[in-house]
């Protein structure tokens, strides 16, 4: 009961954080000069699905089309090497046993929401602890790879292959079998969910 309760609470909080992040994004587009707002619109949006594999050191290659979205050059020799610098990404263990990857500027909005939680309110303090216990910062190396810790690989049930789904402001990493199981189990729910939320 308690275990399921915190999972529900964490899931609800992630949904709230996503909504607040979208508000922040829209607010930035309203106040920035048009050229900057256009840049944000152009840069926003990870869309698509790709299969990759984790190597023996637990490193995962981020798809080139996703890397281009946050400033990583692909294999284009015209891109200066200094531009292909290492960057940090935020990775979170999601309650559904997937992993979620966020860019720093997206996580900044989430961080603001979490920081606003009170340390003197037991529920909010618990939620803050659960969120940060599920979070890690990973470096994106010059080859476009991130190293996944054993804890995060075990959480997602990843042993070798992964599916990376672009979900607009984040990337979701799944073990292929777990994703297939979820899709098969939930296939009949799509019309009802779409009708409820759209």
Structure description:
It is a single chain. With 198 residues, the chain is α+β, with helices and mostly antiparallel strands. The chain has one domain (2-197): Transcriptional regulator MraZ domain (Chemotaxis protein chec), CATH 3.40.1550.20. It has eight helices and eight strands; from the N terminus they run ααββαββααββαββαα. It has helices spanning 2-31, 34-43, 64-67, 104-115, 122-133, 150-156, 176-186, 190-197; strands spanning 46-53, 59-61, 87-93, 99-102, 135-140, 145-147, 161-168, 171-174. The strands form two sheets. It has a six-stranded antiparallel β-sheet. Strands 2-6 form a two-stranded antiparallel ribbon. A hairpin with a 2-residue loop joins strand 7 and strand 8. The two termini are 31 Å apart.
On the 0 to 100 scale, the average pLDDT is 78
CATH superfamily: Transcriptional regulator MraZ domain
Total number of helices:
8
The amount of beta strand, in percent, is 15-25%
CATH architecture label: 3-Layer(aba) Sandwich
CA distance, first residue to last residue: 31 Å
Largest sheet properties? 6 strands, antiparallel
Radius of gyration: 18 Å
CATH class category: Alpha Beta
The helix/strand series, from N terminus to C terminus, equals HHEEHEEHHEEHEEHH
Largest sheet strand order: 1-7-8-4-3-5
Shape: globular
Q: What count of domains describes the coordinates? A: 1
Catalogue the unreliable spans. 25-43, 71-86
Helix content: 40-55%
CATH topology: Chemotaxis protein chec
């Amino acid at each position: 009961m308690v275990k399921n309760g915190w999972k529900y609470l964490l899931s609800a909080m992630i949904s709230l954080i996503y909504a607040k992040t979208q508000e922040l994004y829209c607010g930035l587009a309203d106040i920035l000069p048009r050229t900057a707002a256009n840049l944000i619109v152009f840069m926003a949006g990870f869309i698509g699905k790709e299969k990759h594999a984790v190597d023996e050191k637990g490193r995962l290659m981020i798809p080139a089309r996703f890397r281009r979205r946050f400033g990583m050059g692909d294999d284009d020799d015209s891109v200066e090497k200094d531009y292909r610098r290492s960057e940090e990404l935020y990775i979170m263990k999601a309650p559904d046993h997937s992993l979620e990857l966020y860019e720093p500027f997206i996580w900044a909005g989430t961080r603001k929401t979490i920081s606003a939680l009170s340390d003197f309110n037991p529920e909010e303090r618990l939620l803050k602890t659960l969120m940060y216990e599920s979070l890690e910062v990973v470096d994106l190396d010059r080859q476009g790879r991130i190293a996944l810790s054993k804890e995060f690989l075990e959480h997602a049930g990843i042993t070798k292959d992964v599916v990376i789904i672009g979900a607009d402001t984040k990337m979701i990493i799944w073990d292929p079998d777990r994703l297939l199981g979820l899709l098969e189990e939930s296939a009949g729910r799509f019309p009802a969910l779409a009708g409820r939320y759209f």
